[in-house]
Each structure stands twice: as C-alpha cells, then as structure tokens.
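User: Hello, can you help with two protein structures?

Assistant: Certainly.
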Amino acid sequence: MFEPDRSLLNPKFNSYVLHSLDQDKAISRYPLSNKLSQTNISGRSPLSFQEVQSRIRHNHLTVGPNGRAATLVPSFHTLYELPRPIQASTVDSPHREYPSAAFINVDNLLVSDGYGSIYAIHVPQSGPARVINSYELSIPEVYESAQSSVPFRLHRVGQTSEGTCLAILSSRHYSNSSSTSSKGKVSNAKFDVWGVSIDLEAMSQDQSLQLDIVWHRRGNDVPIFVAYDDPRKAFMLLGSNPYRAIDVAAPATYEPAPDEIAPIPRAGESLDARPSEDILSLTRPPPYSWTQTSDSVTVAFPLPSDTPKNAIRVTFSPRTLTVLVQKEDTDDALSIPLPHYTAKVLWDGIQPSASFWTWDRQAEHSFGLLTLHLDKQHEGTRWAQVFALSGTRPAGDTSEDDVEVPETLDPSELYLIRESLEKYTAALQKGEDASGLGLGRGVPSLGEGEMDPEIDSADANTVCVTWVGVDGSVPSWERSLDAPFTLLSTPFPSSPAPQPTLIVKNGVDGVLFTLSEASSPSDPPEWKHTSTFSALSFVLASKRDTRFVHHVSDQAVLAFESGTRGNVYIYRNTAGIHDPVAKQAVLKIGGGAGGSLLGVGMMHTKVGKPIILCLCEGEWIVAHDVL
C-alpha cells in the first residue's frame, strides 16, 4: 500500500542544521478572557491505556471553513452556550469525553458536549447562532453494551447530500464481561466507532432526538485519524488495529504458556533419549542464529576470527540476500563450512537501504561474528524463518542449505552461537560430549509481571487503515489494504480538509504519501510517494513528550511538545531532492503563563501564506513566517 519511490529517497542526506528564528517576531500571544482547563474527571473507575492516549492526542481546536485570515489579531465571542447536564459520579459511571466539534459547511457545525449529546448549530454570516436540534446516542441491545447511552467523541463529518450529513463518533465499549485487574488496570478495553446520519432539514424539537445509526465498527483503540473521501463515498479510519463489524470475528491470537514451548522432534529423533556415558553425541550448532523485533531481523554467522574483511561479500535486495565468504583452503579437519548464499530468497521483504552488516573479529576467541541487520519492509510482521525455504531440507541431507534454524527468543543470547561452535570444535578435539548446546532458552530478559503488553510490546505509532462506505458497506478493494505501517505525521488540521496525506516511516526517513483522487466509488485508493523528509523517523524518535505531529504539505513537519516545556520543533524539507542538509528550528509555544498546549490548527493569509494557530490554557498564539 505504501511503496516508496527510490528516485525520491535521499541517501546523501547528512543532517539537519539549526536555523534560528526570532521568537518575538515569529510568535504573537493574546491572553484569553476565560482560562481553559483540560481537567476532565467523572466517576472513579480507571481509564484504560488507550483512553489516556486518546486524551493526550485530543485536539481542542477546530478550524472553521473560512480558511483565509484577514488579520492576525483575533477577536473572541461566544457562538452558543451549551447546557451542562447534572450527573452524579458513581463508581460505575462512564468517563465523560472532551467536547469536540466539526464543521459540516460554512453555515453549520456539529458540537459534542462530551456527556452523550450532540448539537447541530446554524452559524449565519450575521446574527446569533441557533441550535437546529440536539441528539443523543441510544445503543440497541444488538451491540451488547452494558450502557444504553455513553459519552462519545466526534471525529469527522461528511455531507452526503444537500440536507444530510454522516458523523463519525467513537465511544468506549462497556460490556458485562469487562474486567479490572487488582492493580486498577482496565483489561481488554474495546471501542465502538459509529456512523450516524443527521438530517439538517428536520424541524426543530424541544427534546433531544435519537441518532440514526447507519453503521458500526469495533476495535482495540480510539481512531487516530479519520478522513472522508467524497468521490469514493467512504471514510478512512486509522487505528492500531482494523475496525471490524461485530459479526466479523477478529483473527484468533494464541500465546503459548512457558511449559508449552518445547522443541519439535524430527523424523526418527527421540528427545527423551539420553546419550549413554560411552557414546558421545556431538551436535553441530546451526550455521547461524537469529532474532527479530517488530521492525528488524538480526542474523549472526560465526566465522573464523582470522577471516579478513575483504573476503566477506554481502548484498541486500528487497527479496533476496547474498552472503559469500572466501577463505584459503586448509587441511584443518575442524574447519567449518563458510556461509555461501547466492540470491537466497528471504522469508519476507526488507529495506536494502536501511540494512547493513558488521564484522567483529573477537581476537580472543577462535570465531568472530558476522552480524546482519535487516530492516523489515512490513513492520509488525513476524518472520517464521530467515529464508523462505528454511526447514524444507530433504530427510538424510546433511548439507547446511535450507536447514531449519529456530529463532533465538532472548536477544541477549543471540551471540551464544560463537561459544557453542567453540565448544563443539573443542569437543571434537578432546572427545568430550558436546550435546545440549542451545541457542537460547526463550526466557524473557524482564521479570515476570514487570511488563505491560499495551505499553511495552506494541508500537504506539503502528496503525492500520480501515475503509467504510457511507452506507456501512465494505468496499471491494478494502480487504487488501490492512497491512500495518508506522505513522509519523498526519496533515495539519485545517478546513476545508486537503486531499489526505500521510508521512510513513521508511527506515530512518519519513516518506510523504498522497492519496490519489477518484472519479467513482469503485476506484481503489492509491498512495503515491510525493516527497521525502530525510531522517525524520530518527529525529522524532528522541521526542518522547510530543503531543501533536503534523505536516504542512511537503514543506515542513512540526512536532509540538506537551507539558511545561511547550516547544515546537520544525523540520523543513530539503531544497533539492538530493541535498545533504535541511533546516530545523525550535520555538517556544506552551508552558509558562500561557499554560499547556491544548490544540493546534492552520489557516492561510489572503496571499496564501500559512499561519499556525495554537490554543493554550491561558493564551491564543499565532505563529507566522515560520515556514
């Protein structure tokens, strides 16, 4: 789905250079008459990890459809004051959501109060705003919810006809089987995504109306990004997992218990048999050892420590690997077969430009280590073997080709293959038993109970794309687009929303993809590589306190910090495709008297220059002339 164009990558890129900006000239601050607060506490039930993440990412600022600013000096006035319901907080009461809003068109917008109601408000060019109708979400029994109504968050609105719009809402799924651990952690949290239809031409009513649920999906997280593609008549949802209908079962996952992890005997092999004291069972270690993470595979080959570096040849390609080691003939009976792989097909694709190898002689040992670091093309995909044909060696074949090599589950034990090979050769010389030499016990390096799978195991930026038609149907091309990828940046919130673009991790780079325009709903979405932000993934990896990361077309990427520091890091694109350097800048936005950053957006001046809008707890900030 996201295939980079090699001609747009920049292997000559060296670094970002600091370009100083005048803080006083680039930033204008305006105090708010009413100080805002993001404190949102209701009930005493714990929040799930996904809900905490969603609240951190929540953007409290909504940009109107008039994308041109006549002046940089803001004026503040109240559009409409929503009624605040009186609710008693109990242990089991659902947590309220942050209020959210989305414009339908120039004159109408939807506002969710965070308690479970949504208001359709008409905002004329002149005169006061008025409420067209208010709506509540009533959950039918078919959705197996323990709550008849829940607070929800408004993500996106698409106008499907002249007087009708479809709004995308998300809410926490409260089921009768939901459980909380003894440490207060919510387990197995699920989230509902609702597509609801709103009739803007309906007559005003004194009481709240029920929202018309057109379709429903369920997933493991709150959507990170939602976009509406009008020509395709479909919504795009980005989340950590695909969003599925409740009648579509998710793929079953199974984690074996420690006592279930055991070696599988081969034909004619007895794992229970013990070698007698008179018979030596000499087991040759496998030709290599390997381990993997979510985005890389590491392979270690033991070589004689006197192997010169110029005798090693390694070639990476997207689907194959070549490893050739030349060594002078020797009469040593204990010499081991050297790696000889010519265009060997890998189990899955890799990124050749981000893969590399190292040679560690280890002079104090008889063997050194040739280590290959392969960057996975499809992050999050778990490899069963290193090579596609591993484990297919015919019975009785004693060659090293296509031998099955189990994964070393404990990365700290990856390099034990060198010690295993030294013990093996020593046993041949001394006539000792060399059996029982393993490549790893599979024991986690962290103590049991100290890992949080939701935080430590999953990559928070790994997302999947789910397409849903406005009528709830699944597009014919949707099933082939569920491969996970690592998301680095989403478009800057602005209105009208531009053609969707995403910045996806590719090695250490950030690759900008633009969604192709469609002429009919049957046109499958195609993502075209249009630009590259070199080393963006690398520099963003050090920014652990970022709240928002957005890009302005192919000009720049802005990473906003939360908390008291409140900096924004600006990474500009290179002037030319193959320029070795690019500019970066740092500005102070939040923190101090202005308080924490709550939301960001973008508008343009009358001449088309972008201006960045920032909403803090006590200030309205305009950043101009920064791009």
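That covers the first. Now for the second protein you mentioned:
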Amino acid sequence: MSVPMLLTPLEPQSPDDHMQNCAALVDGASINYGTGNELEPQPGSSAACKPTLREFNVRLEAPLAADERLGLTGDVKALGEWQLSRSVALESLDDLNWQATVPMQSCRQLEYRFFVYVEDLSGYKQIRRWETHFKPRSLGPCSELQCSQLDVFGITSDNSDLKPQVHRGWLNNEVILQLKFNGEKMFQVHDIETFDPQHVQLKIVPVEQTAGLHVEYTKQEYGKSKLEQQPTFGVPYTKNDIVIFHITLPLEKMMQQHFRLECYSMSNELLGSANLVSSDLTGSEGLLHLPIKSAKDADETLARLRLPYVSVQPYRYSPLDFKNTFAHYWPKSWPNLDVGHRGNGKSYIANAPPERENTIASFLSAHEHHADMIELDVHLTADGVPVIYHDFGLRTAPPGKQISRPEQLEYVLIKDINYSLLKRLRIFSVIAGQVVEYPSHNAEPRTEHRIFPTLVEVLEQLPKSLGIDVEIKWPQRRQGGGSEAEQTIDKNFFADKVLHQVIEKGCGRPIIFSSFDADMCTMLRFKQNIFPVMFLTQGETKKWQPFQDLRTRTFMAAVNNAQAFELAGTAPHAEDFLGDNAPEMLQKAKDLGQIAVIWGDDCNSKERVQYFTRIGATATCYDRSDLFMPQGKQEAFFKSPALMAEFAAQCRI
C-alpha cells in the first residue's frame, strides 16, 4: 500500500458558526457571554461587561531571526481560539520587546500562549517555537478601558527555576526533510588523497531561496545534540559520526526545491559537491545515490555517497491547536511506574500466563494486578486497520491441514493481509521444537481473549486509568545486512492512521508512543503536539544482531537522538543497566530532562523490578504483573481523580 507523497495544504480555517457560552464572575454577578462577537455584551450580561482593549507586551531573552515573528493565541475568538490560522501577530517595538493590542470584553477571563513563527509566500505560518507550559497563561477580567500585561517569553509563574519552557512546533503546511549521515559506510571514494571522507566538512545549500525554507543540522554528541545553524564551511564529519541535516520547507515547494551538498576540506577548501532535487525523494523514505563531483573538474567524480533520507509530512486529518500539550509532561514527582509488557507478559513460550499476550484480557489482567501502564504493539493490515500483535508476521496453515512439524507451517506478514482474513487465520507457535496451535480470532468465543484486537477496540474497552505505551512496529535493517521484515506501507500513511485513532479514541488517559525506528519517532514528534514519544532501543546487547542505524547501537546514542528532536526520552534495553555505571547512565538522561523506561527479560523478577527502581528508572516494563508487582502496592498510580481530570484536557472534542 502506498500514498502520494504530497498533501494538499490546509486552508486557513473560518470561525466556528456556533456560539461557545462561558461564564465569568464580576462584582459577584454571574455573566454569560459568547465568543461570536466579544465586543457586544450578551443578553443578560452585566454593565460591567463592556468593550475594552487588552495590551499584551512580551519581552524576549534574545532577538528573533530576521524572518521570525511573534504570535499570540488563546481561548477567545479575538485571540483565534487556539488556532494557528487565526492567531494574532505582535508588533516589534525593538529587538527584544513585542506588543499587540486586542479588543475584547472587559469581563472576559482568558488563557493564552505566545509562539514564534515564520510565514511562507502563501501566507501559511510555520511554528518555530511555542510556550509549552502544562497550563497556559491566564488573565482575569479587566475593569479599565485599557489593560496592559507584561510577560517574558517562555517563563510563567509555573517556572520555579525561571528557565524558559519552549519547544519546537508541529507541522501544519510544511514538510521536514532529513538527510542522514547515520551509517558506517556512507562514501565510496575513488582517490583517498583527493577526497578523504574521514576528514571532511558537509553543508546543505538551497539553490533557490524561498520564505519558510530553513536548513539546520544535529551532530549528535551528549549534551550538544540540539538542532542548530550550519557553520559557514559545513559540519565536520568522520566515520561513525551521526550528522543529520534537518530541512523545513513549504509543502507546496516539496517537488520544486533543489539543493547542493558541498564538501569542504578541514582547511575550508571546497573539494566537490553533489546536486539533489527534492522530486527525487519518492515516498516517505529511501536511499539516494549521489556522485560527488570535483570543484576543479566537473567531469571528475571524487566519491559516491549513499545517503538515506526521510520525509515527514503534516498530520493528514484535523488540524491540531495550541490549547495544551502532554508531549513533555512527566512530572519529577511521579513514582517509578510499573508497565505490563504486552499486557500480562509474553504467551508463546513455556509457562505462559493464562491470557494470550496483546489481548484485551491480558491488558485487563495487568490492570487488575496494579500495573500503571501496559505496552502494546501496533501493525497496519493491508486494508489500513491498526491491529495489536507483536511479531511482523505469523505462522499459519490452510484450514483442515494436519500439522505435526514446523516446516509444514507458512509464514505471512500482517501488512499483506486484510483484517477480515487475519481474523480467520489459524495461529501456530513453535515451543521447544513442538508445534502448538492456538484459537484464531474468530474461533475464540471469549471476546476479550481474541487475538488481533484493533487499536480502537483496545482504546475503547480499557479503563482510562490504565496508561498505554503504544509501540509502532517498523522493521529495522541489520548491521550485517537484511531486514527484520519487508515493509511496503508508506511510513507517513502508517503514522497518520495510528495517530488519528489515538487522538480520536485515546484522549483522556496517559499515552506515550515508542518505536525502535528513529525516523518513526521523529514523525510522531513533529506530526502532533499532544502525546510524548520515546525512542525504543536495544542498545549494546549480546542477544540480537545490531541494527544498521548508529542511533540504535548504544543508550547514549539514543539519548542524543532524543535531545536532537525533543523526544520525551528513551526506552532502553535492561541489558545496558546491569553494570556498576547504571545509575550514572540514567542520571545523564535525567540531566537532559529525559525519561527512561527500561524493558527486557532481565526485568522479569521481583528483585530486578526493585533494582531498576532503585537505580532511577522512570518506569520498568516487564512480564507477569501477577507475579512480579512490588509487594504492598495497592493501587495503580493513575487511579487518581485529579490525574484523570488533567488528562481529560487532551480531548479536543
């Protein structure tokens, strides 16, 4: 299954037709008003509710870039009702001070946020940075003809440490292209004396300049991985460095933009270059084969570059807004959480739990034993249905065929099967060399025990107080060659399908996304602003072959990638934390404001659950909540009415 790469830009939204009635208390009187016209008192309103001017003044800690502007939005019509397309532009008074004067009702209590944006040639705004405090700014009624307010961008009364709470925005009418130097063998060199890939500086240069086009890079190193502007003569690069060029451009320019990759020596001499046309970037991801041509002789090829890329498109369903965000919400006051791996644990093994893994029954079992969250695995079927199952495929056999040996079984991939057929398939596992058959979805009379529940069914049937780690399954290429599985579904299409269901059906509960695929994590981060995202990694392990992407190889590489793209943190493998330096490693992640949810077979005992709590894991994901839950735990953490009220704010409908 595939979809076209281009999406139609979102049209600026028109105001809502319906009235949203609110109430304010002024001088002891209850005043009802609507947002249809905030300058006209509503029927039954007090005389104290009259037209006034609200003056918003905000000071920056550093000047904006030449093309950047400051915007304002809030929960009233005059401030755009949290919508980017209807936000208010502030005027610059000087390099650091900005101002906007907005007419509205004097009795109006309001919430608002500031953000930095650029505007493309079509008038669409791109959110560069925005205030991401859990609670927006708020103002009470104003009894004067004109009221003035002074704020500092990124800092509110909730900032006890006076550090700005500001993050990058999400995509609306722009696209992100990433060109990734994240492998071991990027260059094939013809003459090492002429072009040495171990000592080179790389720079991406747009051939055509246009509003809304922005090139940044990350060279991933602990504490220094944030995206930044390119140096004049490029980014120093040598083998095993991780350098990713992060390009933002208007969606409508996606098929028209040309770039040049320039290669400089360490003494800043231009050695050669390669041309790149954005129309060559077919699909959501791929591999470019670029000849590096000599700067002295255009007919001479210095080297050939194998350059992976990923294209991140905007979320294709309803536009999101500034109202609130949980993408960075994980308070330090929360305890170490217990996460049920695939529910109550793996089931296609000896001594399995009574409930099959990744079924509603297994999730509910973990919940009954006080798990705070469960982890589940999401695939997309051939007809685009998000379903829950761990492996990329399954062992099956035709109806009626007698099976006694493993080699008689067929292996089929979920991505190649329509959901209606998937529910009918026979299901087998091989345990200690023996073939075991399990009931198919349709053959299981107990609905909660049925294999392959849909994501929607899970979101609708699990209690809201049970958090969910939604792992997006995407096959990885291995260091030694080959892939975990074939994948032909478009990555943006896959991500949007899952996001749509989670946003529509999963709001109001603790949810976090995770994936072993670093690019899927990037997509989930920049397509939406509601839910946090973790980079799931196997790290340095003796259990499996390493993946090709260098970002997956170590815990610190994962931490650096999370910092680069503002992920909530990582979900590292337990094997990385069995040594004496484990607390120090986890502290390094915490020092960058990141969470670390530890998973793996090495978590599967009461002693190990206690150990990972003691060394500072944010949460521990393990099998058998019924056996290994910490002694004395009486209730899951999220069974708190106050916490549930906070998460209810996720819901847009």
